[in-house]
Write a structure and sequence with these properties.
By secondary structure, this protein is mostly helical. It has helices spanning about 5-35, 40-65, 75-90, 95-125, 130-165. The longest helix is centred in the C-terminal third of the chain and has 36 residues, at about 130-165. It is elongated.
Length: about 170
């Protein structure tokens, strides 16, 4: 699809967000199983449910635009999630260190999604699509809150990982 208008750009971003959220829902259960910390595991399971909610918010936006989502690949998100899976498979890593690595990649994923939702929300608002902008803002707020929660978890787990090495 050629990007001739801001609406075209918004549609492309929405396609990528949808593809990314679908990838996330597939990977999060594997990350949750790999997490040693119950707190981290619970957070990751929560993010999976949240991603499903985000997919549910994107579908009506496409309908509002009288469009069907395209099969976007979201190669960047796919790469980030492959990194998550690679780190989750580090059986020989100390549990706290593996948890710290999982948090780091999960935050990379969150930051990518935050950027996507931020852009899409702004563009929808500029295009007068205020209902869509409101829904995108809700998902953006969820992602920012999740990132902040991961930071709080990391502060505790990273300290435990360092102390375990001493």
């Amino acid at each position: 699809m050629p990007l001739k208008t801001m609406k075209d750009l918004l549609v492309q971003q929405l396609d990528e967000l949808l593809a990314g959220e679908r990838h996330i829902t597939q990977v999060m259960p594997k990350l949750a199983r790999a997490a040693n910390s119950n707190r981290l595991r619970d957070a990751i399971e929560s993010y999976q449910r949240q991603s499903k909610e985000h997919v549910g918010r994107l579908d009506p936006i496409f309908r509002e635009m009288d469009l069907k989502p395209r099969k976007a690949e979201a190669r960047g998100m796919k790469g980030l999630l492959e990194d998550c899976l690679r780190l989750a498979a580090l059986d020989n890593a100390e549990a706290h260190v593996r948890d710290a690595a999982i948090i780091a990649v999960a935050q990379h994923v969150k930051h990518d999604v935050i950027a996507g939702y931020g852009c899409a929300k702004t563009w929808a608002s500029l295009l007068g699509m205020h209902d869509a902008a409101d829904e995108l803002q809700r998902s953006l707020a969820d992602e920012r809150n999740a990132d902040a929660e991961l930071t709080r978890i990391a502060e505790d787990l990273n300290l435990a990982a360092v102390e375990a090495a001493v």
